[in-house]
Each structure stands twice: as structure tokens, then as C-alpha cells.
Amino acid sequence: MNFAVLQFPASNCDQDAIHVLRDVFGHDARYVWHKESSLGDADAVIVPGGFSYGDYLRCGAIARFSPVMQAVKQFADNGGLVLGICNGFQVLCEAQLLPGALIRNRSLQFRCEHIWLKTVTADSSFTGRIPPGKLLRVPIAHGEGCYFADEATLTKLKANDQILWQYCDADGSVTERANPNGSLLNIAGICNERRNVAGLMPHPERACESLLGCDDGKLVFESMIHWLEANRVAKAA
Amino acid sequence: MKAKIIITPKKAVLDPQGKTVQNALEHMGYKGVAGVHVGKYLEIDLAPGTDKSAAQKALNDAAHKFLSNPVIEDYKLEIVE
Q1: How far apart, in Å, do the first and last CA atoms of chain B sit?
Q2: Is B69 in the A-facing interface, judged by CB distances under 8 Å?
Q3: Of A3, A126, B24, B29, most Cβ neighbours within 10 A?
């Protein structure tokens, strides 16, 4: 598989994503600079974490208008897989590839810690390989990760099964206490209606090797790779 | 000519900054504060000879598309001589 990992000025999780895809999974992955207007022959796109364009104006607001994001829009419109992590999630919301917005954490604090994630649905190319009931232990590191959307959007997200991950406690209970940033419905990650674009605030790419403390994040990339491989077979057949 | 744009969080959006400032004002003894909303203020210098109504139209578009996020923010645009 061929992954495109976007690079904006001040992206800082791009190398982590490349490392995981190349060295942990053995797939091809390459950087795509924000000024490029083509993604080449990418099978999937990762919009990485960081502080694109210094987070000026709003997180993701300027990145959204970069040439590469026009290519990502086209790629997503054609059904390509796009995963936004942390700042990447913010960029995808600003680009209206995902509904809602990420605002300042309710505590006003930058939260940098490990949290628990409950996978709400296996019906997506990002969660398909996560065993039912398996909780993911992954880190977060953000100041503006509080998911907000109006009532109508939240109702739609629930009705369409678009909520992929919720913050929960170690027992899997979705509680106010387990919510690190004030996100509505404890939302940590969602997908679009078509289910080919997803975003999450936690960092699965930082939790892919037990040497680094945890490898639960692998399940997210494994899900994508499995889906891509199945889809390639389907395409070829 | 200048454009002044004030961006504020929508009423329905949680505004922890505003709440914190409000609490601080109360602690400092300032009475009668019923709410605080923290937003952004942008001042845009317009080139001499710019047509006011054209600028109004263009900046409304920019404010809606880029300078504010309609999901979470409202804005007010004013053009002054």
C-alpha cells in the first residue's frame, strides 16, 4: 500500500506516521508537501498532528486552503481513505470533510496523557479490525480537542453510526470523568457519512510499538490496511 | 478605509475562556457581570479608492468562509471611513 502523509509548516507528527507505516507495517509511505497539488498514486492519506501554520486564526483554518487540501478533497470525493489525527482532525473539520469543530478544552489546559478509547462501531475502514469490546490505550496531546457540533449534527452522527471512538474509563464506561476535554458525547473520533474520511484527536501513531508502552494504535492502521487490501482485490476482480 | 470584524463564539458553544474571565471579575469584586464572551477582533486596512460596497461584499464572503467558522462563531463586519 502507498500512504501519503501530508506536511504543513509546523506539522510535527508526520515522521511518527511515516515511521509506523514504513517500519512497523512495511508499507510505502511518503511525505506530501502542502504546496503540492497532487497526491500521486496514494491509496490512502494521513493528515498528521501538529500545529499547521502555527494554528493561527483557528486550528486548521489556514491549512484548509492549501493546494494539497484541494487534492485531498478530490481524493475523498472519489472515495479514497483519509485519516486525520489531532491537528489533522481539526483540518478535516475546517475543510468540511467532517462535520463539527474542535474548540478549546473545557479545562483550558493542554492535556498530554494516555486515555482509554471505546470503539463505537466496527463498521468503518478505520475500525473494522478492532475486536468487539477491546478498549484502546492511546495518548492525547492537545489544547483544542473539545468536539462541538449542533444538536441536528449530533443526532445525524448517532443515527448514521458515524461516531467511531468515545473517551471512556478503564472499564469502558463513557463518563464525564473520562472525558479529557469536554467533547460533546465524549466524542474522540468520527467519520463522514460515506465512511471513507475519519478524524480523531488521540494519537494511534504514537502507540504502535510495545517498546513505546503500548501498541493498541496498530489496530487503527491495521483496519485501514485490511480494508485497502480487500478493496484492491475487489477492484482487481 | 478600514474594515472591522468582531468574531464571537456562538451562544450555544461552550466558552470556557469567557466563563473563567467572568469568575475572575467576580473574585476581584466587580459586581453585576452577567456573562463574558471572549472573541477576536480583526482590523483590515483597505487600499485607497476601494469601493465600499464591493469591499463589504468581498469581506462578508471572506469572514464567512475563512475568518470565522460558522459552526462555532458569529461575526460582525463594519466598514469605516
Answers
A1: 4
A2: yes
A3: A126
Residues 35-64 of B with CB under 8 A from A: none
Give the CB-side neighbour count of residue B26, counting CA atoms within 13 A. 11
Contacts of A146 in chain B (CB under 8 A): 14
Residue A160 pLDDT greater than 90, yes or no: yes
Contact B72 A148 (CB under 8 A): yes
Query: Global pTM?
Result: 0.94
Chain A contact for B67, CB < 8 A?
yes
Q: State the residue for C-alpha cell 494539497.
A: A68
Note the pLDDT tens digit of each residue in B18-29: 999 999 999 999
Question: Residue A220: pLDDT above 60?
Answer: yes
For residue A96 the three cell numbers come to 468540511
Q: Which positions ≥6 away from A58 have C-beta within 8 Å?
A: A94, B69
* ipTM field: 0.87
